[in-house]
Amino acid sequence: MGVVLLEVKNLNKYFPIQRGILRRNVGAVRAVDGISFAVHAGETLGVVGESGCGKSTMGRSILRLIEPTSGTVQFAGKDILALTKSQMRTMRREMQIVFQDPYASLNPRYTIFQTLSEPMEIHNLYQPAERKRQVESILERVGLAATYASRFPHEFSGGQRQRIGIARALMLHPKLIILDEPVAALDVSVQSQVMNLLEDLQQEFNLTYIFIAHDLSVVKHISNRVLVMYLGRMAELASSEDLFADPLHPYTRALLSAVPIPNPRAKRERIILKGDLPSPANPPSGCVFHTRCPIAQEICKQKVPEWRELRPNHYAACHFVD
Amino acid sequence: MINQTLILEEMEAQQVVNERPDFMRRFWKSGTTKIGTVLLLFLILFSFVGPLIYRHSAIEAHLLYTDAPPSARFPLGTDSLGHNILAQLMVGGQSSLEVGFAAAFLSMVIGILYGMISGIIGGWVDTLMMRIVDIILAIPSIFILLFLNVAFQPNLIIMIFVLASTAWLGVSRLVRAEVLTIKNHVYVEAAHALGARTWRIMIRYMLPNFLGTVLVAATLGIADAILAMAGLSFLGLGLPPPTPNWGGMLSDAMNYMFQNSWWMIYPPGIAILTSQVSINLIGDGLRNAIETRER
Predict the structure, then answer these.
(1) Regarding predicted confidence, which is higher, B79 or A6?
(2) Is A275 left (phi over 0), alpha (psi -120 to 50) or beta?
(3) DSSP letter at B194?
(4) Cross-chain CB nearest to A154 (options B16, B189, B196)
(5) Residue B196's domain spans which residues?
(6) What is the pLDDT of residues A182-191, one digit of tens each?
(7) What ipTM was predicted for this assembly?
(8) Is the dihedral of CA B161, B166, B171, B177 positive or negative?
(9) Is residue B23 part of a domain?
(10) Which of B187, B207, B211 to mutate to test the interface with A (most CBs of A within 10 A)?
(11) Average pLDDT of chain A, as a whole number
């Protein structure tokens, strides 16, 4: 593994709940609550969890698209959260994001060329002729013809648009790309192409990915390590092989048992979680998972489980697994 | 394999027919829009080119020919002071149209700036700015206009500012609403992620999105401004004499209703009506053309 490129420590994002005309704070939605992890250069960290568990908020907080409430984010040794606005703008060349919905993430009034050359305009890179060359070369690299540059987003299919979204993230040659469910909105056949493209690009440009997804099979395929989140907190973190072979946290086990297996005769135990995801505005006491956990005991309601290294490089937050 | 699927994707994409707007064509397609445009062009030519052809003074008083019905010498007759009504109508149109267009443009600029700032900053600044708009809107605009016209001696420039002082409110609300919608688009977030500054997002992302809607509002605002100025002049608070204007002509004519001097009332009345109808038709045409694009 390479050097640590990104280190997140105790990241929190609380959205205040305001009531009344005076906007009194009557509470907070704990969207991201005490997340810490490190990402090494060149690796892919998968982040999984149900919708609403704070995966996307976490990704946006790292990029300061949402200002986190507290915590530190170190990127290549620099404290991102301490940067001024203009320092942060420069830093954005190093860290990019690909969004989930390729229909919403492209400006419908821009041609593809405008979309892709805007990053260079913003950072005053290159002369116009060179910008054109850059756009064409990236377009070809993501599997689109250079002649598409003059077209508008509505002329493309979802898969093509997502390629354009990826191309835009690549324009500034970043080190880190946060992929926020980049294939969730695509057809399955197109999904695998885009996944392959992402893997090729990672090799070629030596990229580091944070891959946010809710589809475990997608994450397993691409990730070196996987972080499982539940209700804004970390449940488990392990290498991809370890996590899928030997899940420790009961939530991870339940998730894995829900992955469909393309064999109708395969017998296996499904762990069905009871109840709904609790509200992050009013999270359960102790271990946030205790309301739905099949092995919960009295202690889980009272004490927040510690984040422990249960196997070498395999962490989980649960009182009862070793 | 990748190539094959790309071709498939391409076919799929081409089914999304190029719906890029042929905006002007759609604008022209409608007959009512054509009528409106022709009427407005006629009014503009009548007011600005007319006096060059029909070379008669609008302020000269033909005291021997007061209250004269239309004749060969005075095609639309004269008023109680012997003014040539046709000449007055032309010159009066100049100030009406100038003030109308300028007030609408000014209110558009103010409204865009105000609404954009309010929407982009958000939070309590937005609340405060919009409450100010609400408060001014709650006061009947004719009251504000009367007050301002009494407080300042109106000339052409002051008149423009007075009329714009109430007209920008609606535009600013419109703009703010659009900004709030656009602000939350993912592609705006993408621009932030690329390091775009706020002004870039305002000019490149926000402005093109709401300019169409605002243009429609501003077009209709021209009609409102012309009508408001006519109304003020009718009440005697318009531009000072001797410069004629439509509202003032109508007001003078009202005093001679009992003489059945129809030639004094109809020309300014019809001129005001024509300006309203033509501009509203154009505004509707613009709206239809823009809304089709957004559908």
Answers:
(1) A6
(2) left
(3) T
(4) B16
(5) 45-57+77-294
(6) 888 888 888 8
(7) 0.84
(8) positive
(9) no
(10) B187
(11) 87
